[in-house]
Amino acid sequence: MTRIEEMGAAAEKAARGLRTLGAEKTEALKAAAKALKDNSAAIIRENKKDMDAAEKAGMSVALLDRLMLNEERIRDMAAAMIEVALETDPVGRILGGEKRPNGLIIEKVSVPLGAIGIIYESRPNVTSDAAALCIKAGNAVILRGGKEAYHSNRVITDILHSAFVGVGLPENCVQLVEDTSRESARELMELVEYLDLLIPRGGAGLINAVKEGAKVPVIETGVGNCHVYVDEFADIDMAREIIFNAKTSRPSVCNAIETVIIHSKIAEAALPEIKKKLDEKNVEIRADERAAGIIPATTPAEEDDWYTEFLDYILAVKIVDSIDEAIEHIAKYSSGHSEAIITNSLENADKFTENVDSAAVYVNSSTRFTDGGEFGLGAEIGISTQKLHARGPMGLSHLTSHKYIIRGKGHIR
Amino acid sequence: MTRIEEMGAAAEKAARGLRTLGAEKTEALKAAAKALKDNSAAIIRENKKDMDAAEKAGMSVALLDRLMLNEERIRDMAAAMIEVALETDPVGRILGGEKRPNGLIIEKVSVPLGAIGIIYESRPNVTSDAAALCIKAGNAVILRGGKEAYHSNRVITDILHSAFVGVGLPENCVQLVEDTSRESARELMELVEYLDLLIPRGGAGLINAVKEGAKVPVIETGVGNCHVYVDEFADIDMAREIIFNAKTSRPSVCNAIETVIIHSKIAEAALPEIKKKLDEKNVEIRADERAAGIIPATTPAEEDDWYTEFLDYILAVKIVDSIDEAIEHIAKYSSGHSEAIITNSLENADKFTENVDSAAVYVNSSTRFTDGGEFGLGAEIGISTQKLHARGPMGLSHLTSHKYIIRGKGHIR
Fold this sequence. Notes:
The structure is a homodimer of 413-residue chains. Chain A is 44% helix and 22% strand. Chain A is of the alpha/beta class and 413 residues long. In chain A, helix 2 (23-38) crosses helix 7 (150-166) and helix 3 (40-56) packs antiparallel against helix 7.
C-alpha cells in the first residue's frame, strides 16, 4: 500500500464511525473552533514559515495576502466552523417515502457520502472550512493543500484532528496529505476504492487537471466566466449599476462578470455611461469592433478574451443585434456559472431564463448573488458548474447521498 | 472532427431544441411507439440478420434469447414507450424557491441534462427504452449498442428518429453509433465537450471499463452483489421463503441475491430447511466450512465467490457469530445495491439499516423489490450503485438537472 492508499483505507474506516453520529459532530466542530483560537500563536508561527518561503520565492502580493493568517483571520475561521456546527444536520433526514400498495414501507433517507478528497490551492482557511462541512455531513475528509501553505495546513489539521478525536470522533476523520507533489494529487484522483467524491478548489488549471485525470467522481466548482446581457429594453441606469457591481465589487471571485453583451439598439446610449462608471475603478475594457466605435480608448477584444475568466479589473464587451445572438454567445463561451439579462421585456426575460443553460440565470440583478449564504443554503463548499448531483451553490446537503430503507413482513416478489 | 465528435456536436444542437419542449415529447413517443408496431416486419427482418450471425458465431442460447425480437417483444417495446410517454414531464418542475429578505425571488427549476450517451450490450429493446426516457426528459441521446445487435439497433433507431422528427423534434435527437468497435466506445467516454452524462448498461466488465476510461460523468448501474442476512432472531419460514424468492425468481437480474449470511445460533435449524427449498430449483450452494458442516453435498466457497455476481442458480453461504460480522462482510464484498436482514429484533433491524451502506436496505423482505416500478418511481434507466446524483432506481427525474432562476429589480450586492 502506498501512503495515499493507507490514508484512503483509514478514511473509509473513519467514515464508518462517522456515519451514525449526530450531536457529536456539532460538539466536535465547536471544540475545534475553540482549539483554533486557543492555538492561534502556533498557527501564526507555522504560517510565518510559509510566508517567508513564499516571499523568498517571489510570490505576488495578492497571493501572499491569500496565504497570510493573523489573529483576525483565525477568529474568522473559527467563526465559520461555529456557523457550520449550528446548521441543521443534513444526515438522517427523511427525504420521502410511502407505503406501497403491497404494504412495503419505503423510506428515502439522507446519508453521508463516505470519504471525500479536497484538492486546493493557497488559502489555508480552506482547511478548516472544508473539514467543518465534510465532518458536519458525516464524511471523512482527506485534504491535499498546496505546497506553499503546507506548514499552515499541517498545524491547522493537527489542531482540528486533536479536537475532533478529543470529543470522540474516529481517528483519521480528517487527514492532510504530507506529499504536496503532483504525484500525490494524481494518486488521490485515482483512489476509487476509497474515495466517494473529489472536489478541486482553485483556478481553472487545477480544476481542468482534476477533471481530466480523475477516476473518482468529481464535482467541479468555481470556474465562473459570467455574462451580463443588456437587452434593447433595458433600463440604462439599472444596467450601469449592475454591471459596475458585478464587475468591481470583488473581481477575484467566481460570480463576478467577465463579459458584457449589449444590444445594438441600446449600445450607443448605454455604453458611454457604463464605461464612465467603470472608469471610476480603472476597469480595462476589451471591446469588439463595434463597441470600440462607440467607446474608443479601449483594448481590442481577441477571440481568447471571450473564454477568459479575468478575475481582475478587465471586462470584455460585445455588441449583438438580437437576444438570440446573446444566448448563442453565452452557450459558446460561458462556463455555465451565472448569467444575467437586464430588460423590461417579459418576453425576453423568459426567453433568456429558458434558453440560457447555466447554474444561475438572473433577471435584473447582479450575478454576485450566486452564493450559498445569499441563496439561503448556508455555508457552501463551492459553486458547482456541472449538472450532476449538485449545480450552483453546494451546501451541506450536497455532501450527502441517500439510501432507501424498506420494511416488509416477509414480502416476496 | 471525428465521426463521434460530429455526433456529439449534433446531439448538443438537438439538446438545445429539446430543452423547451413539453407536450411535443409525449406526442413524439406515442408516434414512435406506433411506428415500431407498424414496422415490426422490417425490425424482425433486420433482427434475423443479427440472429443468424450470432448463431453462426456460436452465441449461447441464453444470449440468443436476449437478442431475439418477435411481434410480441416489439409490442412490449412500444408499450414501454407509451408508459414513458404518459409519465409526468420531469422538466420545468419548480423544485423549490423563496423570496429572500432582500426581495430577490429565487426559483429552483428542473431542466434537462443535455446530451446523454448510453453504452449497452446485446438487448435491442434497450434502444427504444433508453431513447424514450432520454427524450421524455428533454435530452438528446447517443446510443452505442453492441456489434451483435447492430442491424436491430440500426433499424429501431431509424424508425424512432423518423417518428420523432416527423412530429417536430429536432434532427439528431436520437443517434446510433455506426462503429461498434472498442474505439468508438472509448471516444464516447472522452467526449466531455458534448456529453453531459454517460450510462453504461450491461455486465460488470462493461461497467468497469467505462468507469475506468470515462472522462464524461458516469452513472454506474446494475451491478448487484446482493446479500440476505439471517439474524439469530429470524423467523425461519420467512427466511427460507425470502431467500428462495430473492435467489430463484429471476437469477439473471441485478436485485437477485448472491450470498446468504446466517447467524451461527440459527444456522443448524435454518440451513437444512433453506437448502431443501433451494434444491427444488437445483441451486448450487457454495458454502464456507462451517455451513458445509451443516449442509453437506455443497461446493466449498472460495474467496472469489464472495465477490461474484453469479447471475445464475448459484448461492454462496457463510456463517457468522454476530450481526457486526455480517455488516462487515457486506461492507467488504457488496456492490452497494440491495441487502436484506431477516429478524424480529428491532434493535438488530435498526443496526442493519443504519450501518449497511447500500442503495436499498431491507428488513424482512426480498431484495427483488429494488426496481423503479416497485418503488413507485415509474420506468427506470437502471439501478444506480453509486452515491452521487442518483442512487438506487434511476427514473425520469434523475435524467434531469436543475437551475436557479433569480428575479430582481436592479439588485446589487
